[in-house]
Design a protein that fits this description.
Largest sheet: 7 strands, mixed
Mean pLDDT: 88
Shape: globular
Structural class: alpha/beta
Radius of gyration: 19 Å
Distance between the termini: 49 Å
Strand order of the largest sheet: 3-2-1-4-5-7-6
Strand content: 15-25%
Length: about 350
């Protein structure tokens, strides 16, 4: 049994106790009755359904972003680890920065791009951790969009506190209808927001539209496994597991990395590359669960709201999905033709 596996077993055992205790507390606080009201639509097709989904996403991050920042810092995404590594909370924050660097190196094929990006867009920017990091790294201008007004405000406040107000700006915006002109950016960055997109074709089309000729597009996102040639869909038990995760995190239907590749090919994007980094993010969810088991994490969850609580209660399902090779942490990069 690997170090990471042993660690996960211990954390999950402790979390089972946490779930029992928390579910009881939630019932007494009348949160459980709100579950069906807050359940997001899974088959998202109409404009009304998309609005309901996006409202839920915005409210989830309005509720949870402060808690996340307080415990994990300004980067709201997985960390990148060496396989079977044993790490502390401090190491996890460093691993989140490493995720940014590894993503850049994968896309550009080296530590530094041949041409330094001057204008960057961060699609699904959270509280702006990636945006500010990229601005400092490249001396570029960056614009970030998020559905959450609280995130946009906090991202801008952090930029001001770090002396970056003239370099980076944030606004509420829809990734499926970005508020930018065609060909505006030479680096299009999306770190763990694609899973929230109800129309993956429109999402990728928008990434390509705002990219300048020759621009690099970096998409890091949650996917499901690639289907075999004999399969038409995931198995019923796999769909059931993903549905439970979707309900908690306001996610529409999932797709595979190969589906993203096909979408990029249909837009004549070039140098398309993809990799499965699931093994490299293995320590992340056990660590998030561990942080929820602390007194600070527990009491902060109680104050945060039901959407955040519900997300916390299904965290073990993410670990289960990774262990079953159902959930894949994927990077897909490409270049717009010059």
């Amino acid at each position: 049994m690997t170090t990471t596996t042993c660690y996960s077993v211990k954390i999950l055992s402790a979390f089972n106790t946490f779930q029992t205790t928390f579910s009881s507390a939630a019932t007494r606080l009348s949160f459980v009755g709100a579950r069906e009201q807050l359940k997001p639509p899974r088959a998202v097709t109409s404009s009304t359904e998309i609005e309901v989904l996006q409202k839920g996403i915005a409210e989830l991050y309005d509720e949870s972003s402060g808690l996340w920042e307080d415990i994990w810092g300004e980067h709201m995404h997985h960390g990148y680890y060496d396989p079977d590594s044993n790490v502390s909370i401090k190491d996890h924050r460093l691993a989140q920065i490493r995720m940014v660097e590894e993503s850049l190196a994968f896309a550009y094929g080296s530590a530094e791009p041949a041409e330094i990006p001057k204008k960057i867009v961060d699609v699904g920017c959270g509280i702006g951790g990636s945006s500010r990091y990229l601005v400092r790294k490249y001396g570029a201008q960056c614009q970030g969009i998020t559905l959450s007004p609280i995130q946009a405000q906090r991202a801008q406040a952090l930029a001001a506190a770090q002396g970056l107000s003239d370099k980076v700006s944030f606004q509420v915006g829809d990734a499926l209808n970005q508020p930018f002109p065609d060909g505006e950016f030479d680096l299009v960055w999306s770190m763990e927001s694609g899973e929230h997109m109800p129309n993956k074709k429109k999402f990728v089309s928008e990434l390509a539209r705002v990219a300048a000729p020759g621009a690099t597009i970096i998409l890091v996102t949650w996917c499901h496994r690639i289907l075999s040639p004999s399969e038409e869909s995931l198995r019923p038990d796999e769909k059931k597991l993903l549905d439970r995760i979707c309900d908690a995190y306001y996610l529409p239907a999932w797709c595979s990395a190969s589906d993203y590749v096909k979408l990029m090919e249909s837009l004549s994007l070039q140098d398309i590359k993809t990799a499965d980094w699931s093994e490299n993010v293995a320590p992340f969810w056990p660590a998030v669960i561990e942080s929820a088991l602390t007194w600070k994490g527990f009491t902060s969850l109680l104050r945060s709201g039901w959407k955040t609580i519900r997300g916390a209660l299904v965290m073990p399902l993410m670990i289960e999905g990774y262990k079953k090779d159902l959930i894949k942490f994927s990077i897909i990069t490409c270049r717009k033709p010059a």
